[in-house]
Specification:
9 helices, mainly alpha, two-stranded antiparallel ribbon, three-stranded antiparallel beta sheet
């Protein structure tokens, strides 16, 4: 191609183009020439036939790679996957539908519940290891036997792993008592944990560990249910836009609360630094209660 530059030496061929630069090593017994707009690979004996074919392929791939880029189409097959019982046509995100989503009261309330959930979730996950470490240090400073540092990692891992089980429970429970009751219960318990975790700060492991695992379970147990609620609440033609707004606004909010926790530590210390996170679940519960009364 005209946009590809080629430099040929006895040991390699250097190919440059809009997509980058590649070098193909040329083994002894093979030579490369440029003829018009083509690269031609030559061999000095039939014993080099296999390497001759390999070099031809490598050169063709190099030229294609630096000029057009590489592309591989994959078919992903999910083993054991079963589509949901309520299939609907794809509804991609559209800026033109943002106002439609935001004007819809039920969708706003469902997204509001999700934002309350996200206010707490990632800040808790981010700072839980530091809280546990500070709790262990406070207990040791009070004269108790120090706990092994690796227990911080194990307890944090346990809290997040327990959250995975909580998500399974949330899906199972939502089919029996409904999305709204599951998310309300989950936010009530996780919010209560955020507000009262200071009571177990510096306490014995037998008290701290179950408290943290309980919090880890319910802080994320409702996560998937919010997406289901938004899917059902949003205007059918704007579902993709509503889900995109929900997710992007939620993760944007986490940036603020992740920064909020260390500020709270500076102001009031680790024992009660998480209390501000309880505001999120309180707001989320209020939004979902209003959605239930629609």
């Amino acid at each position: 191609a005209d946009k590809v530059q080629v430099k040929i030496t006895p040991t390699n061929v250097e190919v440059k183009g809009p997509k980058g630069q590649l070098v193909v090593d040329i083994p002894a017994g093979i030579s490369v020439e440029k003829q018009a707009n083509y690269l031609v690979a030559l061999r000095n004996s039939d014993s080099m036939a296999a390497k001759h074919g390999l070099i031809r392929s490598l050169l063709a791939n190099a030229v294609n790679g630096v000029s057009q880029g590489f592309q591989k189409d994959l078919e992903i097959v999910g083993i054991g996957y079963r589509d949901g019982p309520f299939p609907f046509a794809r509804r991609p995100f559209a800026w033109s539908l943002v106002a439609t989503v935001l004007r819809d009261r039920e969708t706003r309330l469902a997204i509001g519940g999700y934002l309350g959930h996200m206010w707490e979730l990632y800040a808790m996950w981010t700072w839980l290891p530091a809280f546990i470490a500070a709790s262990f240090a406070a207990r040791a400073a009070a004269g108790h036997a120090p706990l092994a540092p690796h227990l911080v990692d194990l307890l944090t891992f346990g809290a997040i792993t327990t959250g995975g089980l909580g998500c399974l429970w949330g899906g199972w429970a939502s089919q029996r008592i409904g999305y709204a009751r599951v998310v309300t219960l989950s936010m009530a318990i996780s919010g209560a944990c955020a507000a009262t975790v200071g009571l177990v700060f510096g306490g014995p492991a037998w008290l701290l560990v179950p408290f943290v695992l309980l919090w880890g379970w319910f802080v994320v147990a409702d996560s998937a249910q919010f997406s289901a609620m938004v899917t059902e609440a949003a205007p059918p033609h704007a579902v993709g836009t509503a889900l995109t707004l929900q997710t992007s606004m939620g993760f944007l909010l986490t940036m603020a609360t992740i920064q909020l926790v260390p500020f709270m530590v500076e102001q009031i210390g680790w024992p009660w630094a998480f209390t501000a996170l309880a505001l999120g679940p309180a707001f989320g519960i209020a939004a979902i209660r209003r959605l239930e009364r629609r």
